[in-house]
Prior knowledge:
By secondary structure, the protein is mainly beta. The chain is built from one helix and eight strands; from the N terminus they run H-E-E-E-E-E-E-E-E. The protein has one helix spanning 2-19, and strands spanning 26-30, 35-40, 45-49, 55-61, 68-74, 78-86, 91-99, 109-112. Strands 1-7-6-3 form a four-stranded mixed sheet, with no helix packed on it.
Amino acid sequence: MKxxxxxxxxxxxxxxxxxxxxxxxxxxxxxxxGVYVLSTDARPKNxxxxxxxxxxxxxxxxxFTPTGQLIFATHQEGISYVTYKYGKTNAQYTIKVLIDxxxxxxxxxxxLDTIKDTNKNK
Length: 122
């Protein structure tokens, strides 16, 4: 009986810990030192980034459509979670961003051209 009680306590603790973990609805693979655009179904607001040293995120939208875009500026390899709210109910959406130069670029993003610093390599 004690073993069953201990097992139930362990399972209850595991379920309680999962509530506080970030569970991403989408995972995006990007490369370092790039700028990318990801279209969203709703206008993102209250954007939070867990690792701002490797990733900067801004949003754009217009007045005529309910959709928006997230703009990712990557700096170095690593993992970051981007959480934003949308809609009238402030529903929350989480994206896991994996910045890895060895992985294929995610097809759902558009890569923007950036001007490279030519003096940097001299």
